[in-house]
Amino acid sequence: MLMPRGLSRIAGQSGIGAAIRHQEQIVRSLGHEVVTSPLRPFDVMHLNTPFPDTLLLSRWARLRRRPVLMWAHSTEEDFRDSFTGANRIAPLFRRWIALLYRRGDAVITPTDYSRSLVSQPKYGIRRRIHVLSNGVDTSYFRPDPSARDRLRTSLGLPADTRVVMSVGIQMVRKGILDWVEVARQMPGVTFVWYGRTDPRLITKDVAAAIASAPSNCLFPGYVSAEVLRDAYAGCDAFCFLTKEETEGIVLLEALACGAPVLLRDIPIYHDWLPDGEVTHMVPGDGPAFPAAVREKLGALLSGDLADLTAAGRAAAEDVDLGRVAERLAGIYRAEGVQRKG
User: Fold this and answer.
1) What is Dmax (Cα atoms) for the chain?
2) What is the pLDDT at residue 340?
3) Which single residue of 152, 177, 263, 335 has CA 20 to 30 Å from 291?
4) pLDDT of residue 341
5) 280 near 309, Cβ under 8 Å?
6) 336 or 43: which carries more pLDDT confidence?
7) Average pLDDT over residues 114-125
């Protein structure tokens, strides 16, 4: 199986980068060899990114008469409110990714919600669209009571500090503006945001929010998986206020680690991880939203809301990489993909 590196290296710290790493792991678990150079022999090409080399690689596969599995991670909706100028060019971005997706012999997208978007007529996809989660390694991301002390020690915080965390690229779509405002309204709680954005791409409002964030906001940047695992397992709440996702690998990791989760109530999560059953949610947007989050987050931290961590762990286990591998094998069979030799 060819999973070319190319420009995908640019996405190494993003959700797409994590998805590619997961794919490599599950493909190998199925007994297939993973090659990364298009100059080496391959039977099937996996393509994941919206970068220009994806079009060139798909043409190379056609020349070699090899099938292409195209992963639809991105949509016009989740491109908006991302980087400087993104909203202006979002319709052009959609036309571009639609062109890429149509180059696939089959299209794979992580959730029913994302399939509902890319199956719209404006994408023009006529091939079969499969749903396959990006998955989570629940043997690695798991509850660990000892992580609580390690997390606070690593951040230089007293042992009794209440810690609320989030993870993601720093952009409006990820809800960072609201997240900083919630932190401002809860000075007795430490808020930690893991992840960063290239300063050349960050929007002015996000840069201003980070620069003026209250002292109880910490921004450690991009950290290792080990550090992130301790954060998930050791925090008091995972507060994920994203406005649009096609799945959200970091959310799966938090659920797998048993973190109490508070989400913005958006379409992708409304039925999949329902409020009061698997996660806690706050609906809405606008000026009143941070206060609503503060109220519900305060109740969660005080123990006034139901403990849903077992249900969250079960939801993560449903998309464990082992199960995702089994489902990928089914897609291979459906598309006639076979290991040669």
Assistant:
1) 62
2) 53
3) 152
4) 46
5) no
6) 43
7) 97
Instruction: Write down the pLDDT at residue 336.
Output: 84
**292/224 Cα distance (integer angstroms):** 32
- Rounded to the nearest 5°, which phi and psi values hold at 239? -105, 100
Mean pLDDT of all residues in 194-216: 93
Residue 205: pLDDT above 90? yes
Q: Across all residues in the chain, what is the average pLDDT?
A: 94
CA 77-82-85 angle, 5° bins = 100
Buried b (16+ CB within 10 A) or exposed e, 221-241: eebeeeebbbbbbbbbbbbbb
- Closest of 85, 124, 80 to residue 102, by C-alpha: 124
Q: Provide the H-helix boundaries in the chain.
A: 15-29, 52-63, 76-79, 86-101, 112-118, 147-155, 176-185, 204-211, 225-234, 249-256, 267-270, 289-301, 309-317, 321-334
Whole-number pLDDT of residue 338: 65
- Alpha-carbon distance values, 143 to 137, 140, 185 (Å): 12, 9, 29
For the record, the structure tokens of 323 come out as 């199960």
Residue tagged 């069979």 (tokens): 333
Q: Which residue type does 265 have?
A: D
Domains of the chain: 6-135+320-334 (3.40.50.2000), 147-317 (3.40.50.2000)
Cβ contact 190:163 at 8 Å: yes
pTM of the model: 0.94
Q: What is the mean pLDDT of residues 75-86?
A: 90
Residue 126 has which token pair? 């006529």
Q: Which two tokens stand for residue 319?
A: 């998309």
